[in-house]
Each structure stands twice: as structure tokens, then as C-alpha cells.
Amino acid sequence: MDFKMHEYTHVIVSKSSPRLDRADINDSRRQYDCYIRLLSELNLEIIEIEAGSSFPEAVVLEDIALVCHGIALLLKPKTGQEQLVKSVKQTLEDDLGQTVIELSDPDAKLLGSDVLFTGREFFVGICETTNEAGASAVAAAFPEFPCTPIKVTKGAQHLKKYITVAGPDILCVAASKEAKELLKRMEREASFSYQTLTVPEEEAANCLYANGTLIHRAIEEIPQSFKVFCEKIDFSRRSICFSELSKISSGLSACCLLLRKPFTT
User: Fold this and answer.
1) What are the tens digits of pLDDT across the range 207-233?
2) Overall pTM surpassing 0.85 (yes/no)
3) CB atoms < 10 A from the CB of 125, how many?
4) Is there a contact between 227 and 237 (Cβ–Cβ < 8 Å)?
């Protein structure tokens, strides 16, 4: 994410549509196409990258890099992701003017789905997939922002399954016990204060805020939470179906990399 309070110029997405054993092929492709089309309507320039055909989860980009304020922290690729990581790195450096830092600590474990940037500070969920060394790498890559490690309850999922940004200084939080515990820990350690928007369905907690618009799941997928969004959000909202893609990701935040290209004279 980027420092100017979620204002972006470009978004990186995978060129390949998902081919998933766990999802209906036609539905997942349709949802992915709608997702990209919606992003293009938010005054974002779409940058499609070659993902390679060997890794079926190539549409999930948030675990490839963290991008903020002109700096990109490139994470360790999973097996089969080498082409995807290479494409992301080349695009960030050559086309979008980002300074790329590679995660070099051999002891560091870090996934983007465990990292929440509020626009003011970072929270890093410490769990099976991300450790303290990974949180330290985030702090070192983005020293101008506070970075706080937050312990995730054992057996729980990624941080952004439970809490994401829903607007300027607004956190969208699931109603589950795990989410409430995470929020309490975050509030104790936070450098800034935030409003919270609690949603009854856990799958509604992962939303995407960009360029003044909140993107959340469609009413047929989150009927109770949809009412909450309608009642509580007084700025632009868009909703899409994401049920199939959510089976391989943390949600709406997972399938793109939002960034602001530096202005050059």
C-alpha cells in the first residue's frame, strides 16, 4: 500500500486467469475478470504480468511483495512461483520506478497476507507463516512507519482474514473471537487511533479500499455484512462476487498490488 492515504496510480495483476481444482473454473475466471474490470474503473492503470502456467495460485500477488511509498519488499517465492516473482520484480523496477529490496534474512518468514498497512503504520501478524524476523524485515524496509508485531492466536488464519482497511483510519473487523482478540492487541500497541467497522460474516472482513472507494463482497455472499456496509459507509462502495477466489486467498486484498508511481519530470 502507499502513504498518500490509499491513493494509487497503478495496480499489478496476473495475466493468467485462475485454474483451480478447488473451484469452478468458469466462476473463478468470471470473478477474476470482474475484479480486474472494477479496479480499472477506480482511475487505476492496470499492469498485467506474465505469471507462468505451472502455479495455479498465480493470481495471488500479496504474498509476492509489499509495496509502500516507492519501496517494494520482495518476499521469498514459493516453489513454482519463480517466474511470477521475476515478472513482479522487473515490472516494479523497470516500469513503475519502485526501489526493490529483497528479503535476505534466511531465518525470516513473511507473507503479505499477514501484513496490514493502515496508511499510517504496519501491523505484522506473527503466526506459522510469518515470524519476528519477518516483522523486523518490514520495519527495516519501511523505517518511516511504525511497525508492530501482533501475535495471532495459534490455529488462526492470516491477519488480513480478520482485519483490513475499509477507509481512511477505518478498520473492518470480523465479529469472531479471533478477530476481536487481534483487534485488542493492535489497539494496545497502535501509534494511531482508528474507527472500527464490525461485520458479522468473517469472509466480509477482507475488503479493499483504493482511491476513495471501498470494494467488498456481494450481497449474495455476505447478506448481513452487506447491510452493515450500506448503513455505516458514507462514501463510494462497490461490491463483487469473490467466493471462488477466496478459496485460494485471504480475500479481495490478495489478488493485486496497489502502488503509486513516483512523479518524474
Assistant:
1) 999 999 999 999 999 999 999 999 999
2) yes
3) 29
4) no
